[in-house]
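Quick look at the format.
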Amino acid sequence: MVPAAILALAIGVAAQSPGGAQRPVFTSSVDLVTVDVNVVDRNGRPVEDLGRDDFELSVDGQVRKIASAQFVSVKPSAGEPAASSSLPDFSTNTVQSGRLIGLVIDRGSISPVRSRDVLAAAARFVEKLDPSDHVALFSIPTGPAIDFTTDHRAIEAAVRQIDGQGDTQRGTMNIGIADALAFETNNTFTMEQVSERECGEVSGRGGSQSEVMMCNKMLKEDASIVANYAHDRARNTMNGLRAILDRLGSNDTPKTLVLVSEALIIDNERRVVEGFGRAAAAAHVTLYALKPEPSESDASEARLSGTRSRDRAVREEGLQFVSAAGGGELFRVIADPDFAFARVASELSGYYLLTFAPEAGDRDGKAHAIAVKVHRTGVSVRSRREFGVHLARSTRNDKDAIADLLRTPVAATGIPLTLTTYVFQDPGSLRVRVLVATDVERAPDPADRLSVGMVLVDDKGTAAASAYQPQMTPSPQSPPGTQRFFTTLLAQPGPYTLRAAVSSSSGLSGSVERHVRAYVSRLGPFRASELLIGDSEGGSAAGGILPTVTGEMTGGVMHAYLELFAEAPAMFDRASVTLEAAATPESPALGRAEARLQVPDSDVHSRAAAASIPLETLAAGSYVARAVIRIDGRPVGTMTRAFRVVK
């Protein structure tokens, strides 16, 4: 039988003020550099079985030691659960179910004719994304703009209303962009070829010298019009992309931008893309470019350029640059636009997070070349080409880092963490206490200090309760390889979203989100807390339960605890609680134990029920713990909790 002080270890410690009377001191941290890398096979499927030693990372040509390599699988929220999260009673960031995906429509570069089917495919791409994905829409230079949201229908509707504004025909003569850029640089060889092609007919039919000169003058004017228009479009596109990166801010949560554009011309004006790779790295953005190819018989073109193949290369050069600098890829949309979007969706279904420690020379605020290789054949690596580490970033204090993580809607995955919640009535009030039990993967460096913060947010986005500790104090009974941490949040009953974040002194971070129904249940004449279960492994000397986070039981005994509340204390004299273990919530019990109702010191309206069940006879696998509450032997309600026996 478990003694009355069963929660002294977990709840008693967690209920203490995080800082006590002492004002916390926020210290600065040294950042690790986090690099997200996609490794895909020939079909665009992520390769999932790589370890740290399979990667080689270099900065400015110098190989650096990789501190960690973690594969993050982006699983759909619907359908079969992933193996590591098959129990419904905990949340983890090691299997990510939500992404930040921004759709960028470069309207100024897309022809009105081609835009129809491509943007319709973009809307279908959004429609097929997982409901947990946060999607944003950006238009360049003007048009609909919607910040990250899970309201995919709003994004789809806005995309279907967008049209292309690109003008593929400028001037009056048959001159393509490649020819126009050659005129801009006074390439005499090309200029003579174009002059012969466009003005030779004037000379051939006996035109005067002045007519030929007039033709050449018009040719130069048209070349200037075409080149200037292309440069204006490129500047608009890059200014729009930079504004989007600034809007996304600087944090370590990976984001993806899918740029739909027919052209980004940087020839003769490469400074327009200067620093883009560093800005993308600062915003933790991976960029994919989808380039719709104009039809060979596009009715919007009055004449066909004589240099279509060269024009095509010039038009996509800038898109190749920004997609490579942004760690993504350029896909050409030739016939079936859905195929290109499907390829992007496949590549976004998993990625690796690599970390390495920057050297002193990296903190000069300048761009540094970064290269990632994989020691495996038949795969493609998508990673950014440069990064910049600013000295100012290392002065960001722990509390600011936690606040940034709690504001970001998608989980950070640099530090793997798993958490669960148990809801109890707050004695003497109508509020509830939410016990949060968290397992944080132990850092390789024992000196690495962790700060932790949590917030309960209601459906209006208002913070109902929060907690912050500049230095996490793990439980002495933490499972191997983890640091188990407890805290409690006091709030009014209601549905909430719990956000928890951890930041290390070495610069790694992790966060996770969990939906919490912060209520006690009404069972007949009683109100009942959630059923808390714990393992006998690592139990405290005081006899308290160490609440489980994942539901895994590695010891020989499962302990359970819940609280009952009644307006009439006499009802407890007629009540009994039986703890059972079963294969499913409805199946017969495989083991049971009678709980003893314990009278607390000060509240006659409540009882604590505790019991233990041996697990030696149960085979490895998933089960349900069941607390059956009875009055005069008649069941009035049941509280359950899933668990797994691990041999």
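Next, a different chain entirely:
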Amino acid sequence: MNEAGFVKKQPAFKPDNRLGQGEETDEERERADKLFTSNDRREAFRRLSVTTALELEQAMLHYKKKVLLDLLGKKEVNQNIVREHKTVYLGASTDIEYPLCLGGRNIVLVDPTFKDEVGRLLILNKIKDMGGHEPTKISEDEYSFLFDFGNGVEAVSVELVGKSYASREEFSEYKMPDKVGLILSFITPSGPTAGHPLDARVVRDKLVAGGMILVFGEALDETTMNQERGRFLNKNFGGDIEEAIRIFKGDGGALLSEEARWIFKRHGYELVPTDPFEYERVEGGRVTAEMGEVTTFLKKGTVL
């Protein structure tokens, strides 16, 4: 912590791009073997995937795995909450493995791909391949299956919702249910709300006490973030950016981390630090592609 008592920025994650889908680094394998005590959950982790541009696929996959291992290893994901309440995954594609790794028992996968029977069949086949348990149809959109999280097999439900979600209600086909334990999003949808698929302010009342948000990217839209940055600077440093930089000893990353923590606290969330993602592809000594992004993990608290 620095002289103002602020938390120092987490180091950036810089991926090893030599491995592909379904492959694990030695560190991933070692950490997963210790963390996941059942074959089902371990296999779900091994099968994790991402849907993104081909050139980013490998890097994003290993980043996704690292954030998951970090949060679970530090026991940041409340297992009682994900056991008792819904886990809603926005823009899920066919990624049933992600919520299972996190401990979700009542899973809602939201993605337009489920308007097509092919998308549904892919999910059902993946469930069967993971643990050998045949899914049972409960209703038109919901299925049940057995899965071992580490304490013997348990019943898990998954609802397949063939709709799109946007933070602005007028653009959203899917309406967020009440009493949600965990909201996930790992991709940014196209359309009118591209760039901010999830607004933490909009969904806060839908979360149970202590409910969580895990989203790749910001959890507030750009306009709101810019307004809040101004408030942060005025409240803490009298609007003087040079004073802020002096207190943080020129560490812009640490300043941004504290800024984000302060902003989300204002809106009733505890921000849990995660490694930011930084990617670059170098060909012939020249950077040909690069990307920087954060993962936002929030826990519902009290609004200031």
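Confidence is low (pLDDT under 50) at residues 1-11, 16-21, 188-196.

See the schema section for token definitions.
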